[in-house]
């Protein structure tokens, strides 16, 4: 699994890591039952603090994407099937937001407001 981060991006690094893991799962690069890299190893390869990776893993655990246990590491959980069209739409939306420098928080807000209409 290849994780890329941009230290100059407006999104926090832990959010970038979380999104990259979600992308890898959505693309099938990582499947249910697969172990994610140990936080220490991933932090070292990305040249970031281990607590940054742990925060990303914690966010993924709270979202029900991974199981995180001491001694067992981070393991990908079974995901609900998604409509392929939804994945394409999300990727397109994220690409547009990145091109225009729209932070993830603003994108979340726009989605929340759109859902209320």
TrEMBL record:
<dbReference type="Pfam" id="PF00392">
    <property type="entry name" value="GntR"/>
</dbReference>
<dbReference type="InterPro" id="IPR036388">
    <property type="entry name" value="WH-like_DNA-bd_sf"/>
</dbReference>
<feature type="domain" description="HTH gntR-type">
    <location>
        <begin position="11"/>
        <end position="79"/>
    </location>
</feature>
<keyword id="KW-0238">DNA-binding</keyword>
<protein>
    <submittedName>
        <fullName>GntR family transcriptional regulator</fullName>
    </submittedName>
</protein>
<dbReference type="InterPro" id="IPR000524">
    <property type="entry name" value="Tscrpt_reg_HTH_GntR"/>
</dbReference>
<dbReference type="InterPro" id="IPR036390">
    <property type="entry name" value="WH_DNA-bd_sf"/>
</dbReference>
<keyword id="KW-0805">Transcription regulation</keyword>
<keyword id="KW-0804">Transcription</keyword>
